[in-house]
Hints:
The structure holds two protein chains of two kinds.
Chain A: H1 5-42, H2 45-48, E1 52-53, E2 60-61, H3 64-95, H4 98-112, H5 116-143, H6 158-182, H7 186-194, H8 199-210, H9 212-228, H10 231-236, H11 257-264, H12 273-303, E3 306-307, E4 310-311
Antiparallel strand pairs in A: 1-2, 3-4
Helix pairs in contact in A: 1-12, 3-6, 3-9, 4-6, 6-9, 7-8, 9-12, 11-12
Chain B: H1 3-27, E1 32-38, H2 43-56, E2 60-65, H3 69-77, E3 83-86, H4 92-97, E4 101-116, E5 125-126, H5 128-135, H6 145-150, E6 162-166, H7 171-183, H8 185-190, E7 203-205, H9 207-217, E8 221-226, H10 227-232, E9 236-237, E10 239-241, E11 247-248, H11 252-264, E12 291-299, H12 310-324, H13 341-352, E13 355-356, E14 359-360
Parallel strand pairs in B: 1-2, 1-3, 5-10, 6-7, 6-8
Antiparallel strand pairs in B: 3-12, 4-8, 4-9, 4-12, 10-11, 13-14
Amino acid sequence: MKLTGDKIFKILAAIIAASALTILLITGYTLTAGSAPVLQKFGLNFFFGQQWNPVEGREVFGILPYVLGTLATSGIALLIGVPLSLGIAIFLVEMSPRSLSVPISYLVELLAAVPSVIYGLWGLFVFRFWMLNYIEIPISKYLGWIPLFNSSHIGLNIFTAGAILAIMIIPTVASISKEVLSAVPNSIREGAYSIGATKWEVIHRWVLSYGRSGIFGAIILGLGRAVGETMAVTMLIGNATGSAAMPTSLFQPGQTMASLIANGFLDTTRGSLASSAYIGVGLTLLFISLLINVGAHVVMTRVFKVKGGAVE
Amino acid sequence: MNTKYTIVIAIVAIAILIGAIAAYTYSNSEPVILNGAGASFPFPLLEEMMKDYENIKSNVQINYSPSGSGAGISALTDKLVDFAGSDAPLSASEAEKAPNTLHIPETIGSIAVTYNINGVSSGLKLTGQVVADIFQGKITKWNDPAITKLNPDVTLPAETINVVRRSDSSGTTFIFTGYLSASSTSWKNDIGQAKSVEWPTGTGSQGNTGVAQTVSTTTNSIGYVELAYALRTRMTYAAIQNPSGNYVLPTLASTTAAAQAKASTGLPAGNENWSNVNLLNANESNAYPIVGFSYLLVYKELNTIPDMTQERATALVEFLWYIIHDGQNLASQVDYAPLPPNVVTINSATIQSITFDGKPVL
């Protein structure tokens, strides 16, 4: 067989593509092997238990509060971040003059380049007090009797962490949505205007609907970042442990899987049950991330009936 | 000027620079490098000592990575470092994995219980039982009778106590939870002593700096930090009742007094089991009760470490000797308590027992 340039390129590309899968498999295997001791000892209680006690001799590990904490902070991030991101994208594509849209989209993309520890520090020294004085204290004053708004008046809690995550996912969601919306053919807009639609109707009936699969993809990428974000969350979430970490109130300290690992894993002795438990948290985090991506794919193909990138 | 000339000049300049660096490195004989890792608490002190020691022995270069006590012990167990730092002595299971490890207490930590209450200055009186009840969520208001009874002259607010504690695993927490376990049976039975525990209440912040920052920005809060951090950030902190019944503020003097008193009642030799050693509740009228050693851990037989040579072994042992003798003079400058003489004596014997290939190094 003669190796032409084309063939060599094909083989190289295949190897590179395979390496991505291999890395995922190796990671999965390492995490599974590392967490085997804790899974054998606690079984399903590892996933549904609420206690987390690394003290030697009384070890109990249950990760339910941290799984829920991850979902709660990511959910808050999406609730706040997605409408803002879509607003930015719509403004940039449909409304703003070019002289304004170029610098604004450049600035939005620049937000993505800010390291997460900077968001964390800014959150800790500045943003936290805005949240505390203008949102947490007023709401808990009047609605504090509802468990959801029960407040510890420190400002380090699930809501602050979720809000900083919202800011962090805006650049991702906004810039991809912007690209998606600019790819909507102008003929769609022209057609809509010609049958007498207002600007609002054109945007929400036709443009958003045409670009929904792309926007959905952008949201999933943002969710991926929110689920795995560690540094900024650790600095702002209050790091509760055990059943105190169950996310029952927006304004009480919580904990996510990523922040739990960041707080405790480094200092465990390798081979101990505690270190195995932290690896188990890592495995769960990987699994949930995969689940989100696969789930998103299913939603896209089934609900939106996307094939080959186009909406039917 | 012509671009070609600029490029030529640039190349010549770079070549000269590289040559100069090479000549400089060659003229200095290759340094002896020692590597350590572990506890972050003694790091500011060790850093001062390392800087000072490099002036004394210019051919020795020491690296210490403050990655945490547990990480340091793992690295020593895997023989990746020449020495480790730990704020807790080796537990029985850890000692089994790293046999023949020596404990060398190199400095003393004391934990200040800091608070932030409007109008209340340093010196609020607290007992171990009350501190334990606050951190366990049993006492939730500042004007709880248990606190006001100890402080009849202080006006305390009828506000909720905001508990702040460490979120990361730390030697500070190990000493503090050890004290709470010694003070309260309910703490001992439900939570216990460890570098990180299952906290029933409160907000977790990272590191001594994180706790200090959260306490100083949150009114009606209480937390615990290493004394050096409390002194440097001018926080207000409590006077804690010691076994003699006195309320003692944490100071370098009351910290050293605790170590002195405990050491005079006997410490194990460097090669013995240290897992039960603590400096809590020393029986001495002016000793602060929440105190603990920070240790350096080394193998008794240095050829246990694969790339150890006679030269490196000598450098390591000489550096350890410096740390517990001349190095202690630097301690008070950086707000660390110096070792009392009776601990230095025990350490000297420990360091003299270190061997390389069966022969004593010193």
